[in-house]
Amino acid sequence: MHLSREELRKIDEQFIDSLPGKSAKELCLLVLDDLKELHERLGQNSENSSMPPGSNFPWARFDADEEEPDEEQNEPAHIELDDSDEESAEHDEDADKSDQQDSSKNIDDRPKGNKPGKQPGATGHGRTQKLPVHDTIIHKAGTCSACNLELDETCDFTARTGHYVIDIEVGDETGPGIEVINIKHIYGDTTCGGCGHVNRLMPHRLEKNEDWGVEVSQWHMVGPTLAALIVCLSKRMRLSRRRIREFLRDWLRLDLCIGTINKCIHEAGRAVSPLTDEFLEEVRESLILFVDETSWKEWGKKRWLWVFTSLKVTFYIIGFRSQNVLDYVLGQTFKGLLMSDGYRAYRKFLNRLRCWAHLLRKTKGLKQSLSDDPRTFGTEAHAVLTELMDVIYKAREGPPTDLLPIYREFLAEFKECCMKYRDSTHKKTRELAREFLNDWDTIFHVLSNPTWPLTNNEAEQALRHWVIARKLSHGTRNGQGSRVFAILASVIDTCRKRNACPWKYLAEVITARRQGLDVPPLPLAA
After folding, report:
1. Cα–Cα dist 239/255, whole Å
2. pLDDT digits (tens, 9 = 90+) for 450-502
3. Which of 33, 368, 411, 472 is such that its CA lies 20 to 30 A from the CA of 276?
4. Using CA atoms in the order 80, 83, 88, 93, what is the torsion angle rounded to 10 degrees?
């Protein structure tokens, strides 16, 4: 904008009348440029810019062939600039530094007020709901720890402690339905008949540590399958803790407190956390990997939700928007093809593809500009991309063909056009022209193999569900919550890609981890 808010306050009819003719004309030209820019901003939407679909109004509809959309319906919530431009790259560096500074702030900088849940010093209360016991399981030691003799049913057993586990049994095709069960577990001492040693068996516990503030333990009121159902209601159905409690009370006649529900979700996240190494290994072995990121909130601080998805695996991680995240996930062993948008951190990977859908939306936005230069460049760039897309789709119907030599002169003419507008006074035109020039080989790399993907839709569609969840929950409250969210989302979407039920697998993992066993491997791809 040429005129600031302070300058506009000083401009009135009397001021304009006092200007000589030439100065008044120059002022009118500045106001005209600002007015055109404002109209272009009002006309931006997810169809003609990099704005996400979630920024559109729910009632907004866009015609693919419409040249001048209704500004009143398409008013954006905010304006996004192109990440690949040199000026926006500097902005990204400043944003990364700001993120790093946020991470070093003291915990006292968090929003004031009591944290959710039971407050320190508050008096608690026990369970008031009494459920009938469906079965009793007595846990005895299997072998004597002194003489290594196998302990059988004839050995004396003395009960020392016990607890109840509420779980659900899920039916199958022949007998569908869900039944709530209450199992009583008893632990105690078993006396060895050979040496007389008393062997005490207690529930296994994976204690809290500096990384995890939640236990994984057999001493838990909620069973593995019910815990998996709670995770399903939270992550797949996007219900809050209070809504989950309401659902369980209304439909299963089961009363659980919000703290127990939250503990089940975090325990499930810790149970599957060892799968991170397996996810990273499979991501690095992917032949074609789709990568994208979207903003995230962690207790009011800005973070980013990253997705790395391929044919067989989907992995999420919440962190800063920086090169460090890519280095951690992809490491030095990734040799596959990387599909991404124009974020500058991806330029480190030479074997890369660019999403053409992002570029088409930007060219469409320039075509709708009120100024001549943006409209001319946008029309030219849009025509080039659409023509090459048609050629690529036709080439996919026949044997693989290298199209780069055929269209070398055609691309050279378009490159001259980009060079012409790289220093344009119109910001969006200048940014898009430089984006083409900075990523020229990457953008048109797909012409050498038309079977490669043209868009990053795989990553964007993977993020869509979790973006909706972010808008409902406003993100996570701490680092543990972010880790739980990311690893559970990775397990859920990877199981779906492999045609496996994520909830059944999650219950198996919780069961194994509560017993101190290793995590079962991820289901194999079908």
Report:
1. 16
2. 999 999 999 999 999 999 999 999 999 999 999 999 999 999 999 999 999 99
3. 472
4. 120
Q: DSSP code of 523?
A: P
Residue 277, C-beta contacts closer than 8 angstroms, at least 6 positions apart: none
pLDDT, position 363: 95
> What was the pLDDT predicted at 90?
44
Nearest-10 Cα torsion for 377, 379, 385, 387:
-130
C-alpha to C-alpha distance for 440 and 381, rounded to whole angstroms: 13
Tell me which residues of the chain have a pLDDT lower than 70. Answer: 58-113, 526
- Summarised one tens digit per residue, pLDDT across range 358-367 is 999 999 999 9
In whole angstroms, what is the distance from residue 367 CA to residue 361 CA?
10
Output Rg (C-alpha) for the chain, integer angstroms. Answer: 30
Q: Which of 152, 140, 156 lies closest to 196 in space, CA to CA? A: 156
CB 292 within 8 A of CB 254: no
Entry pTM:
0.81
Alpha-carbon distance of 124 to 121, in angstroms, equals 9
- Sorted by where each begins, the domain ranges of the chain are 135-274+501-514, 277-460
What does the pLDDT read at residue 112? 61
Which of these, 217, 282, 221, 248, lies nearest to 491 by C-alpha position?
282
Tokens found for residue 275: 């799968």
Q: What residues contact 28, with CB distance under 8 A and at least 6 apart?
A: none
HEC sequence for 272-309: HHHHHHHHHHHHHCCCEEEEEEEEEEECCEEEEEEEEE
H or E element at residue 502: helix 502-514
Two tokens, residue 157: 């057993």
CA–chain centroid gap for 22, Å, is: 55
